[in-house]
Amino acid sequence: xxxxxxxxxxxxxxxxxxxxxxxxxxxxxxxxxxxxxxxxxxxxxxxxxxxxxxxxxxxxxxxxxxxxxxxxxxxxxxxxxxxxxxxxxxxxxxxxxxxxxxxxxxxxxxxxxxxxxxxxxxxxxxxxxxxxxx
Length: 134
Hints:
3-stranded antiparallel sheet, 134 residues, 2 domains, 27% strand, 6 strands, alpha+beta, 22% helix
């Protein structure tokens, strides 16, 4: 097996064109071989070496895991920083029930209203709303 550096460089030249789920045509032998441990089969094409390479993704270990508690409750007001010129984001903040705090120059929006949206990426973790009641 080549050292990681060689393989990593080779992997960058390969393009994955097909990603198949277990049981699809082109995966049946591997499904029989790996069983429930098979996640997917990829067909990669190396243009430099002119090769088609079949790779598998499989489960090698499984342990119990407890996800961490959510950082914010759905009704918790979270601070969101939106630049002055980002008018579409400001409109989304208003539509999500956000309110502007001119002192801190931040929007405060209920987390449940922005979870999974583009606004979630603008949350400021170290700010606090001084007007917010406990």
